[in-house]
Amino acid sequence: MAALAPWSLAVGAGMDFLREGLSAPAAMALQFRRLVHLQLQPDPEPETGGSTPPLHAKDGSGEGEAEGTMVEVNEGEAPAERERDIAERERDIAERERDIAERDTVEEAALDAAAEEVAELELDADHRQIRLHHFPSSLCSQQVRLALAEKGVAWEDVTVNTGPAHEHFEPEYAKLNPKLVVPTLEVDGTVVTEVVDIVNFVDRSFGGPELMPSDPEAREEALRWIERQDSFPISELTYGRSKGLTRWFQRWTLKQRRKRLRKLMKKHPELREIYLAKLEHLEVLRGTIGDRALMDQLVVEVEDMLDEIEEALEEREWLAGDEYSLADLLWTAVLARLDHIGFSRSLSERRHPRVADWYQRLRERPSWGEGIRRLSPLEVARIYGPAVLKTFLIAWVIKWAVLTPLIYGLTALLNCSGS
Q: 30-34, 169-173, 178-182, 236-240: which has the minimum mean pLDDT?
């Protein structure tokens, strides 16, 4: 029950005092009973059908009506507010969907533009002039072909006959590659000659898998093995360890090269320094392969190197780490050459099991077939045959041109002396 305000008791008692003629105490008591009875009355229940509830006050002030109306509005506004919230959420979802659709459109446009750019780059790569001057069995040519194959680069084949034809000594090639060696790579007028420079150029200039590690430590390790390969005496071992007909061809070819260089020095004095440097290199090579003790020492170096590679492969799958790199690529051709010149036992699983496994994985790469090539018997006949026949034919003509008159002269002399 609400507390009775003292001023309401006083006002009500005053009205009874004047209207009823009651004494002041009686009027106050009557007014007090009325107010208590009014406060104890229960609120009536609202009628079914949602009619407006009755007023709480009987004085007609309208406070009860306003209060009832407010209750009705509050009860009706709750579903409307929920509907408004749902509508706002739906609008937000629709806006987000529009934003996502716009972003998807922008991303698709960017992807389409990137695809077109890649297609243009690939088209440009297809139209780039890439020429490789090489010889099939040249070790350095094999290394560059491996790099081009790993990168998926198509190239124009310019075979330079480094056999008896000595095409790498011709003035045109000497101006292209002053060291008179193969390979030489030409890309849109840019000429690269040193094999390590060529494979690095190929790796940087063309798409495809990266052939140098991104990790600094692995990259440093790759560079170390590349340097070791570059200083490895594979040329000396190739000429010094060959046997049989191959040995004879190689020695004969070296002799013919020296003769050819001397002639070119006289014929093209402007290239004398280039030819002289090459001639000196051949003389050093000739001295090395003729030194039996030095060649034995080189064989020991091969075994030491394979031991070092075996140890390195204990910790990782490839020479520089967990990924194939230019270090593995360059050593692929070296291992193939060692296998060809009599070191197959050193590359076996019994002697160096990890090296043997590594070598097997190198041979299983798709680039092996294009990179590592050896001359077929038909190619050998085509390359060496004309020069060999010419040499022997000249020797045969000279032989019989000298011997025939000599034989006839001796015969006549003997016949005369016996008569």
A: 30-34
Task: Return the closest-CA partner of residue 355 out of 305, 302, 315, 306.
Answer: 306
pLDDT at 95 over 50: yes
Q: SS3 sequence, 320-363?
A: CCCCCCHHHHHHHHHHHHHHHCCCCCCCCCCCCHHHHHHHHHHH
> Using CA atoms, how far apart are residues 342 and 344, in angstroms rounded to an integer?
6
Scored b (16 or more CB within 10 A) or e, 253-283 reads bbebbeebbeebbeeeeebeebbeebbeeee
Q: Which two tokens stand for residue 77?
A: 């506004």
CB of 142 closer than 8 Å to CB of 336: yes
Instruction: Give start and end residues of each alpha helix (H) in 157-243.
Output: 171-176, 195-205, 216-230, 234-241
The sign one gets for the Cα dihedral 353, 354, 357, 358 is negative
For the segment 233-284, what is each residue's pLDDT rounded down to a tens digit?
999 999 998 888 778 878 888 999 999 999 999 999 999 999 999 999 999 9
Three-state secondary structure call for residue 187:
strand
Is the pLDDT at 101 greater than 60? The verdict is yes
| Amino acid in position 202 | V
Q: At what angle do helices 292-312 and 353-363 cross, to 10 degrees?
A: 80
Given this model, what pLDDT does residue 345 score? 96
Number of C-alpha atoms within 13 angstroms, CB side, residue 38? 15
Q: What is the DSSP string of 46-101?
A: PPTTTPPPPPS-SS--SHHHHHHHHHHHHHHHHHHHHHHHHHHHHHHHHHHHHHHH
The percent of the chain in helix, strand and coil, each rounded to the nearest 5, is 70, 5, 25
What DSSP string runs through 107-159? HHHHHHHHHHHHHHHHHHHHHS-EEEEE-TT-HHHHHHHHHHHHHT---EEEE
> In the predicted model, is pLDDT for residue 17 greater than 70?
no
Are 313 and 355 a contacting pair, CB within 8 Å? yes
Nearest Cα neighbor of 329 from 210, 192, 159 is: 210
Stated length of the chain: 419
Answer yes or no: is pLDDT of 398 > 70: no
Which is nearest to 372 in space by CA: 329, 415, 310? 329
Q: Is the pTM above the cut of 0.85?
A: no
- State the fold for domain 128-374: Glutathione S-transferase Yfyf (Class Pi); Chain A, domain 2 (1.20.1050)
What DSSP designation does 185 have? E
Q: What is the pLDDT of residues 107-139, one digit of tens each?
A: 667 656 655 654 555 545 555 799 999 999 999
